[in-house]
Amino acid sequence: MLPLSDLLIWSLAGVLFGALISWIPGFHIFNIMALLVAVFGVGELMPVQAFPFFAIGAIVAYAYVSAISSVYFSVADESAVFLLFPTQRYLLLGRGHEAVLLYLIGAVAGTLFLVIGALFLFPRILPPIYQATSPYITYFLVAIVVFMFMSEWPKEGDRGRTPAERLWLAWRQIFGGILVFFLSGLLGFIVMNTNLLPTTSAYTRLTPMFIGFFGMSWVILNILSNPPMLEQVPDDRVESSLYNTLKATFGGALGGTIAAVYPIITGGMGALIAGHMTSQRGDDAFIISQGVNRVIYYVGAFTLLFLPQLRLTRGAAAWLVSSIYTPKSYAEYLAAIGAILLSAGISFLFTYYLSRFLAKSFNVVHIKKLSYVVAVTLVVISYLLTGPMGLAVLFVSTAIGLMAAAFNTRRSYCLGGLILPVLISMTGHTGYFMHLLGLG
Amino acid sequence: MRGFTHYISGLAAATFFAALVGDLRLGILIPVIAAASAYFPDFVDFKFGKFLARRDYEIDPAPWDEKKHYAPKLVKVSELSEENRYQFFAIEGTVEDILVRGSGKVSYKVLREDGSEETVTEEYNSIVFTLNDGTGKITVEAFGDDYEFFEEEFGKIEEGKEILVFGYVDVDEDGLKLVVSDAPHPQGIADTIARAIEEAYREGERIVKIHNIRLPGDVYRRFLVHLDPPKREVRVEMGPIVTPGGVAIGGDVPEYRKYGVAKVSVPFIKTYPKPTRIDSFSGPEIAFRRAEFRGKTVVKDRFLPWHHGFSHSLTMGMIIGLVVFALFKLIGYEHATELALASMIGQWLHVFEDQLGFMGSNLLPPITKDVVPGFKLGESGSGLTNFSTAWLMIAFMIWNFNRFTDPRPIPMSDAKLLLLLAWPSIVGFAIAIVRSFRLRREISELMDYYTNLEAFEEMEEVGGI
């Protein structure tokens, strides 16, 4: 293990790196870290033992600072699927800064939950429960997918003139969701199981697909919808209650923990489960719970890499880091928890002041102009990571992401790109489907 | 209970069968059918029943613009008729003739929270003019707070000016007029509900669908429908603009068009002691049915009449069990019997869990004909009961996975492990039970008010019944 002072410096470097890029719409810390490794490598500029701590700083910063893009620029990744719409409404009411503050309340609560849990609970509770339930992960995963389909709430249909018309309007949206899921799944299956993308992109082959589903599609929606840049109130004032905050914290922690511990179950899916389990209501509670959820989902999942008795590799960043260096000692685990606290404090301040600054100067640069710049940057990232075929994947996945919006259905159906191929693989049917698609 | 609570109960039901757990360990995922069966009653009701159900009255206070899917709908004058009275619309046209610019005093009644009335008199400014949109002319009237807003928006109104006006349609001796406002008038909603109650008393049943009011920006105008049996009144209160998450963001309507009150000439009772709140998602359906209550014929309300019917019965559970058994036996699934039992139990758990709430279900049709009232442990959306139930099911799953695995991943006695896992649920249910006593007492007091027999009898003396 490196000296503590070195780990501290590398954690701070990670926070700085994460904070600088995480507010930009469409950027995901996992993509940027992959790009960093691909371009600069690790071991020359940075010692390999320091990489996990650099990653912790960057991921904590992302979990905090990405609230800015979710609130002010309407772009978020899948785990913020429920965050998006309440925050858009807050922004339209000139209360974007309040939405960020609510998120920060949740993020701080999530950090405290994570740190206390990591120190006193997780090492004792997680290993036996994980051991008892891990053989049934496919059961949970398929159950969540079936529930997503069965529980889709038809947003239209009420006003049809006849029962048949009402039924059609309702089911049109549900069928749209199913179509998005299976098209995403088909794309994911091809990307994962063929040599469509170069082998040099082994760690980043899913990147253009996810950029398309959740980043580029929303950047394009920003350009198309050309939202008004309304004056924002930069006051430090939130409307919520202690009860709502506690309830939202509990729900967010539950969803984030489920998503962090079990593979393939993402933050959005965890939030769906926990939201139903705890019967979440109210925009303020939603935003707070998302702050909790995202911190535990991203940071908690990565922390599992350090947990001595369990050492689970969860999330793209953990896979990237573990391919270079896996922490081994309990001292590193404790140092990681300290790094989380420190990074969270800095990220909180950065997010808070950035939000105040943006609230005051919100309409200086129009979101449409910013979206053009981001769209070009996302194309460049995809090209650098995966070459020309990556751009083809980006194009198709963007179209699928836009389809979800057009059908007014859940954006999280795009997770079919990950879930379907994994389910096919887990149940041993990859060969059969390759043959069925004429790919092998 | 919420959908996922039922669903996870089905997931847990499957884990009580060692054969099914064995299949899951082998990657055979068929037991997820038990979870789908547990969710089936809500799936059928909310994906089919809701849309196919009969509607005798459809109240749409603010029809949607067909392209934008929110109100107000931009209409032509020629499209409007007396049937649109109190509905919220927008009209674009030219100011043709200014009829009156004036000021005066307006008096109106305000309902206090305790139900008493107060008469308020205010000074107001007003304008009345005719608007021509090429298909016809309509009188437009703006007064009071709405006039102030109108003047702020358009400046001084002059003949020949092109404007887009929104407001509710009203009717007077001169015909149709558009009263400038930012919401429909609640009187139309109150009148229709009162009419439905009176018809139900004569004919047996009337089902009313009440649509919500969706406005630009994905926000909703909240309104409350309050049935007051002792006063024999339907009162509708137009509320603030709220987000889909229920947060009020202002936009309160002026007092003079906040309330709609309609008298009902027949006795009715309300089975749920709170006003019906309509805001985001979709509006409710309410069935008014003739029934006997304490020896008198009255009209009773039933919220979402298409919900908690046959789909939420134990009979349906048996049918699901038989269908699952037949289907999976046919395709040669080795554990079809266990799966059928798990599916039936999953659906029964759904029925039982809903029975803990208020609504109740028709438990054993065709033997039982109507819903059996719920145990009133908590409302269906209660976070406490939902979490306690869902957590209990998670505890059962972990417990079952452990005891059906050899060697056991958690080396602990079954009883101790279950207790360690389930304590949050035990605590949650204990709190819910304690709370339910208070809730029942409150309901009892409110029901006494709602079903005030003295009021019925008094009315009877004067020929009310």
TrEMBL record, chain A:
Keyword Repeat belongs to the record: no
Keywords of this entry: Membrane, Transmembrane, Transmembrane helix
Name of the protein this chain belongs to: DUF112 domain-containing protein
Annotated signal peptide: none
InterPro entries: DUF112_TM
Organism: Thermococcus barossii
Residue stretches spanning the membrane: 30-46, 53-75, 100-122, 129-150, 170-191, 203-224, 250-274, 295-313, 333-355, 367-385, 391-407, 414-434
Superkingdom assignment: Archaea
Pfam families per UniProt: TctA
Keyword Transmembrane among record annotations: yes
Lineage start: Archaea, Methanobacteriati, Methanobacteriota, Thermococci, Thermococcales
Annotated ranges, domain DUF112: 8-415
From TrEMBL, chain B:
Name assigned to this protein: DNA-binding protein
Key words, A-Z: DNA-binding, Membrane, Transmembrane, Transmembrane helix
Residue ranges annotated for the OB domain, each copy included: 127-182
Source domain of life: Archaea
Pfam families reported in the protein's UniProt record: tRNA_anti-codon, YdjM
Single annotated GO MF: DNA binding
Stored CDD domains: RPA2_OBF_family (cd03524)
Classification via InterPro entries: NA-bd_OB_tRNA (IPR004365), YdjM-like (IPR007404)
Membrane-spanning parts: 310-331, 384-402, 417-437
